[in-house]
Amino acid sequence: MAEVDVVVTGVELADLIGCKPSYVVELKRKGRLVPAADGKGYLRLASLALYEQTRDPARAGVVARHAAHRGAPLAGSETDGAEVAEIDDADEAEAEGALRLLGSDAKRRAKALADKAELDAQSARIDMAERLGELLPRADVEREVAQAANGLRVALENMADALAPQLAATTDEAQCRRLVLDEVTHALEELSRGFREAAKAAEVRA
User: Fold this and answer.
1) Domain locations in the chain as residue ranges
2) How far apart are CA 59 and CA 39, in angstroms?
3) What is the spatial distance between Cα 70 and Cα 67, in angstroms, rounded to a whole number?
4) Under a CB-based contact definition with an 8 Å cutoff, are residues 83 and 72 in contact?
5) How many Å apart are CA 36 and CA 12, to the nearest integer?
6) Are residues 29 and 87 in contact, defined by beta-carbon separation less than 8 angstroms?
7) In sequence order, what DSSP letters do the residues of 10-67 get, joined into one string?
8) Contact assessment for residue 143 and residue 190, using Cβ atoms and an 8 Å cutoff
9) Residue of 41, 45, 134, 203 with fewest CB within 10 Å of its CB?
10) Is the pLDDT of residue 45 over 90?
11) Cα 145–chain centre separation
12) Please, is 57 exposed, middle or buried when counting C-beta atoms within 10 Å of its C-beta (0-12, 13-18, 19+)?
């Protein structure tokens, strides 16, 4: 026993096809659906069958025969003004949505390009500063500072051995102060010399 066809709304048919309701109106305009006898809704089975049959552009003649049989207008002929307005509104909405997506993608690409340009500019500034001797690699700076600090540490450690016999030999407070000051000055000079050598080494590398 053949299955009895039923009438469905445009929204229900859109769910069955997997499209938007506005596309159902377009399909009707192109004669790819079978309207109900009273013009309200669509025959579900007949519409789905015709929709599948007319998927292939090579079978456009099928559309023409079905449209001629029903007396429906073919694609390109005049359509009801309300349907045209609905189609135009749907197309406009879809176009606006596409533009928003494109705009969002364009913004992301523009931000990515701007970030990359900023990183490239920073790298270029760092390279130029290194070539001009205005900036040193971190490892080189740490090594030179460590050497200078080590020189100061050695001078401070030797200070006790150097001062002990001299201070033991005098009871003059002024003399003791001068001896201590001389040793501190010597330690500071060693530290300054270490930094000067580090600066010279940087100039040679630049």
Assistant:
1) 7-78, 80-135, 138-205
2) 25
3) 5
4) no
5) 14
6) yes
7) HHHHHHHHTS-HHHHHHHHHTT-S-B-TTSSSEEHHHHHHHHHHTSSGGGHHHHHHHH
8) no
9) 203
10) yes
11) 40
12) exposed
| Beta-strand pair 42-43/7-8 | antiparallel
- Helix and strand tally (H, E) in the chain? 7, 2
Q: How is residue 164 written in tokens?
A: 């002990």
Closest CA to 155 of 178, 188, 126, 130: 188
H/E run at residue 42: strand 42-43
The whole-number pLDDT of residue 74 equals 42
pLDDT, tens digit, for every residue of 72-110?
444 433 344 444 444 445 555 555 555 566 667 777 888
**Separation CA 92–CA 1 (nearest Å):** 45
Distance CA 146, CA 152 (A): 10
Helix axis angle for 10-17 and 21-29, nearest 10°, is: 100
What contacts 23, CB < 8 A, 6 or more positions away? Answer: 14, 17, 90
Can you read off the two tokens belonging to residue 163?
Answer: 């001062």
Dihedrals phi, psi of 114, to nearest 5 degrees = -65, -40
Beta bridge partners of 203: none
**163 touches 180 (CB < 8 A):** yes
21's tokens:
């309701």
In 3-state terms, the chain is what percent helix, strand and coil (to 5)?
75, 0, 20
Backbone phi and psi for residue 99, each to the nearest 5 degrees, phi listed first: -65, -40
Tokens of 58: 């090579």
- Reported as a single tens digit per residue, the pLDDT across 142-170 is 787 787 778 778 877 787 788 788 888 88
